[in-house]
Amino acid sequence: MDFTVAIRTYNGEQRIGEILERLKAQTQTEVIEWEVVVVDNNSGDRTAAIIKTHQETWPSHSQLHYFFEARQGASYARARCIQEAQSDLIGFLDDDNYPAEDWVFQAYQFGQEYPKAGAYSGQIHGEYEVTPPPNFKRIANFIPIIERGQNPLCYTSYKYAKKKVYPPGAGLVIRKQVWLDTVPKKLVLQGPVGTSLTAKGEDIEALTYIATAGWEIWYNPHMHIYHRIPKSRFEREYLIKFFKGVGLSRHRTRMLNYKAWQKPFFVAAYFVNDFRKLLRHFWTYRDVLDTDVVAAAELQFFKSCLVSPLFIWKKLYLERN
């Protein structure tokens, strides 16, 4: 098997059918042996029945497999995808990501041309149910919307390397053996669990392990997926909850970059810097925090970054005990 498309879904009956139809229509795959692996992360709707219907009419140019994963959490679903994949190249799609007609080909081709890339991702374009709020560009990368130009770039050797910027899990392609060799079987950050967003950042945690092991991480501008974003994700309540989860993961993803003896110094440095950012942001936007959802979400992010060491330490303590 040359390539595996891995889809993790939770209550995706309204979305999974269209994704599968787009995968049926993939072009330039005549010489590629590829499969689609769908992992149902404990859905309570008709997701399984819809996939079964598609299996009955699935074309012969690829294969469609269904697996049920009862342990809720994005990291558990992703681990199951990796376990079941028959190819060394695995491309992940969330159940609200719609691939361009040549996504499989472009993802496979890039893997052949860049053998040192342990992971890579492409462009993520937004399909919005409603117009995004003003200043949405300030937070677009978190949603995620990723449009970094038309030239390939290496996250681990370009200007992003110093900032430890990595691509999101949506549309990410990994080498199965690289993942198995470098990423722990159980990550501290589990990712979204059902509708909970308090343990986000599992994709960054995993990519940090891959980068630390010496593998390159790339951006491939020829891979396009479309992220469908409903109006509910621009509501104040959702954005506050979302950025709370992103911020609470920060301590974990930051500390993976340092040795044990360095961590106390960097914990203190990050605390001071996060506190400075929090005060500056509050002072700058104090008059519009009640009406500007982007500014309010950013403020929540800085608050959560500030307390993220306590959140992670508590989480690790509870898991040990």
Task: Give the SSE layout.
Layout: E1 3-9, H1 16-24, E2 34-40, H2 47-56, E3 62-68, H3 74-84, E4 89-94, E5 97-99, H4 103-113, E6 117-128, E7 153-154, H5 160-163, E8 173-175, H6 176-182, H7 202-212, E9 216-229, H8 236-248, H9 250-255, H10 263-285, H11 293-320
Parallel strand pairs: 1-2, 1-4, 2-3, 6-9
Antiparallel strand pairs: 4-8, 5-9, 6-8, 7-9
- The name of the CATH architecture of the largest domain is Alpha-Beta Complex
Under CATH, the topology of the largest domain is which? Spore Coat Polysaccharide Biosynthesis Protein SpsA, Chain A
Helix content: 40-55%
The H-level CATH homologous superfamily of the largest domain, spelled out, is Spore Coat Polysaccharide Biosynthesis Protein SpsA, Chain A
Secondary-structure element pattern, one letter each = EHEHEHEEHEEHEHHEHHHH
Strand content: 15-25%
Quick check: average pLDDT? Answer: 93
Number of helices: 11
How many distinct folded domains?
Answer: 2
What's the gyration radius in Å?
20 Å
- Mind describing the biggest β-sheet? 9 strands, mixed
Which of globular, elongated, flat, extended, rod-shaped describes the shape?
Answer: globular
Q: Give unreliable regions as ranges.
A: none
Distance between the termini: 42 Å
- Structural category: alpha/beta
CATH C-level name of the largest domain? Alpha Beta
User: How many beta-strand runs?
Assistant: 9
